[in-house]
Design brief:
By secondary structure, this protein is α/β, with parallel strands linked by helices. It is built from 6 helices and 5 strands. About 3% of the residues have low confidence.
């Protein structure tokens, strides 16, 4: 049994969850762990002097719990409830992959936490220009809701800070342009993962 752990990181509203769900439908033995499931409760998230809740930082997340969940999955992916569904396209590419399990970990802060960095087989990072990101973010409803100025005052600066950080550490990522259509993004990542599966089978 072999496992492939894929990181799908990037900017807020870049299309990570949509892409992860699409890949799950089309890949064998595929499961998703979402970083959003590891946010601390609001009462434990720090507030800065401007009254902004600091959600877009590692301290707002139970990162050790997340790492533990991924390790547990790697230890026994078959028992994690992955359903080997009849794939929508059992093409030749996917023959003989019954013994390979794929985990997609999606989230906005994946490549800045050392214990995660030794787990990835592949890392993807979705980007968006500032204006488009702000526009998309404004159409989403968050719990708690974004306060006025929150995007410019906290969300975008933290995105740039963490992106610069992993780039300075020369983390090897494949950049994806989040303005491309869902179909384009999917086919790019899907064909890349198929290549990884072939390597694992050899």
């Amino acid at each position: 049994m072999k496992v492939l752990v894929i990181g799908l990181g990037g900017v807020t509203n870049g299309g990570k969850t949509t892409l992860a769900e699409k890949l799950k439908k089309m890949l064998p033995n595929c499961d998703i762990i979402s970083q959003d499931d590891f946010f601390k409760p609001e009462s434990e998230v720090e507030t800065d002097e401007r009254g902004f809740k600091l959600y877009d930082v590692l301290d707002a997340l139970y990162m050790d719990e997340m790492v533990k969940s991924i390790h547990n999955w790697i230890k026994s992916p078959a028992s994690s409830g992955v359903v080997t569904e009849e794939l929508q396209n059992t093409c030749d590419n996917l023959k003989n992959t019954e013994d390979i399990y794929i985990l997609i970990v999606e989230g906005f802060l994946l490549y800045n936490y050392e214990p995660l960095n030794e787990l990835w087989n592949r890392r993807y990072f979705l980007t968006l220009p500032y204006e488009e990101c702000k526009r998309r973010r404004s159409t989403r409803v968050y719990q708690p809701a974004d306060t006025p100025g929150y995007f410019d005052g906290h969300v975008w600066p933290m995105y740039l800070k963490y992106k610069n950080e992993f780039e300075e550490n020369a983390v090897n990522v494949v950049y994806l342009d989040g303005t491309k259509s869902q179909e384009e993004l999917f086919s790019c990542v899907y064909s890349d993962i198929i290549q990884e599966l072939k390597k694992l089978r050899e």
